[in-house]
Design goal:
Strand content of chain B: under 5%
Oligomer: heterodimer
Largest sheet of chain B: none
Number of helices of chain A: 8
Radius of gyration of chain A: 21 Å
Structural class of chain A: mainly alpha
Number of strands of chain A: 0
Helix content of chain B: over 70%
Helix content of chain A: over 70%
Largest sheet of chain A: none
Radius of gyration of chain B: 22 Å
Largest interface: A-B, 36 and 41 residues
Order of helices and strands of chain B: HHHHHHHHHH
Chain lengths: 226, 245
């Protein structure tokens, strides 16, 4: 039977915390880009200009059809080379990490855009008619009337997606970014304490994601008492 | 850009000599499909069971089922996979752990991946099954009980036949997810599609062709599964419900 030895964890905490900061940074960046780019995609998808709507539909369906691991490998291995040769970067400049982070955000945007599209569609049509009757342009009615209501309805879903996204960040492991999971794995591997470090990492993720999902549930009850 | 496109690379004999690079891709595709389908069977069986337990009036059983779902939903898939692959064999009784460690490496990777994906997905399936059961009109359960059925009989003959049909459309997306999530198993060295893609990049020095081919293979899986599920959805749709005839 395995003899547990947790002694390598306390000393490694600062290193693990650095990893956690990277995980949180990637999460924050992807949520931000996901919401902004996702909103634009959702508006394109619902637009009456066909090429825009086709582009958005193609983008979303494509990213939803392929695994995140593949996207990260693309943006870690292939895209940097392509950009470097295309823009004639000096050899030795390392785009790989920022590229992987960008790929992650572009991937998550597809999922955000679907949530936001549903949110926009949940606003009654009369609201847009009323806004145009008041003389607002399409942009104004979106910005001042539709989106504020849509986002209010979407808050719980956007937050739930952020929790999923935080879990997904562990996959940047394939791109050698030292996020929390990567840090835990490295410490465990170095000290021969993989069992303890992996269980510790699992427990940390569980506590964070479970508490966050409970908070979202409470918010949901407060805003939408069913 | 002076990249030399060469799609013919797939027909060249591979570095190991006994196969073409196309053969590598096909074996990766087979592994992805075998893994996803076997994990899906596990996910359906466990998910149906746990989903039903979440709706029963027994506090203990419902609580255990809820704990199960929360546990598998709040830990990243990659972490779960590493725990199944690296941690569990150490914690098993020595005989069993050693038997596992002495089995063929591919067998170890495949078993860990299958159990991991299966249990991870079962928690999501359970949520859909629970939602399906809860969406039934309350009168159905009461009618079953009023007719003298016991509670298990009411589930068996009244509620589940309806709930399982209602739950098919939402399960489609979980079924698609299991194929995509199987790519995570490349991290423990299982040679499925994504891992073969990486190998192709290393061996052929044709990164674009390799990754485009693998990406298209995933898109193809997605389209095929979607078409098959759509047929199943129309077949099991309940008349009178949205999506029914």
């Amino acid at each position: 039977m395995h003899e547990f030895d947790w002694s390598s964890i306390p000393g490694a905490l600062p290193f693990l915390w650095d990893g956690m900061k990277i995980s949180l940074l990637i999460t924050a960046q992807a949520v931000l880009i996901g919401i902004v780019w996702g909103t634009l995609l959702a508006m394109m998808r619902l637009s009456s200009i066909k090429p825009l709507s086709w582009f958005a539909a193609g983008y979303v369906n494509f990213f939803r059809a392929i695994p995140l691991v593949m996207v990260l490998l693309w943006f870690f291995l292939i895209v940097p080379r392509f950009i470097e040769t295309l823009l004639d970067f000096p050899p030795g400049s390392d785009l790989r990490l920022s590229s992987a982070m960008m790929g992650f955000a572009l991937f998550e945007s597809a999922y955000y855009s679907e949530i936001i599209r549903a949110g926009i569609q949940s606003v009654p049509k009369g609201q847009i008619s009323a806004a145009s009757a008041l003389g607002m342009t399409y942009g104004q009615s979106m910005r001042l009337v539709v989106l504020p209501q849509a986002f209010r309805n979407m808050v719980p879903l956007l937050l739930t997606q952020a929790i999923i996204l935080f879990q997904d960040t562990s996959l940047v492991y394939v791109s050698a970014l030292a996020d929390f999971f990567g840090a835990a794995y490295k410490v465990g591997d170095r000290d021969g304490r993989l069992v303890e470090l992996l269980l510790f990492a699992g427990a940390v993720y569980f506590v964070i994601c479970f508490s966050a999902s409970q908070i979202v549930k409470r918010l949901q009850k407060k805003y939408h008492p069913a | 850009m002076n990249y030399q496109w060469n799609w013919g690379v797939f027909l060249q004999p591979s570095a190991t000599g006994d196969d073409t690079y196309l053969g590598w891709m096909i074996s990766g595709l087979q592994m992805t499909i075998a893994l996803s389908l076997s994990a899906w069977v596990l996910a359906l069986m466990l998910g149906a069971l746990v989903g039903v337990l979440r709706t029963v009036p027994n506090k203990l059983l419902a609580g255990l089922a809820t704990a199960y779902v929360e546990l598998f939903r709040n830990i990243p898939l990659l972490v779960q996979l590493f725990i199944w692959y690296f941690v569990l064999p150490e914690l098993l009784p020595p005989d069993l752990g050693n038997a596992f460690k002495q089995s063929h490496p591919v067998m170890q990777q495949f078993l860990s991946s299958m159990v991991c994906l299966g249990l991870f997905t079962s928690a999501r399936v359970a949520e859909q099954v629970r939602a399906g059961i809860n969406s039934l009109p309350r009168g159905q359960k009461n009618a079953g009980l009023a007719l003298g059925f016991t509670l298990p009989q009411t589930y068996r003959f009244v509620m589940l036949p309806m709930a399982f049909r209602l739950v098919v459309p939402p399960l489609t997306s979980e079924f698609l997810n299991i194929f995509k999530n199987s790519a995570v198993c490349s991290t423990i060295g299982l040679l499925e599609l994504a891992a073969q893609g990486r190998q192709l990049v290393d061996y052929t020095a044709q990164p674009y062709e390799s990754f485009i081919a693998v990406t298209l293979a995933y898109v193809m899986i997605n389209v095929v599964v979607m078409l098959l599920m759509r047929r199943l959805e129309t077949k099991v749709a309940v008349p009178g419900y949205i999506g029914g005839k």
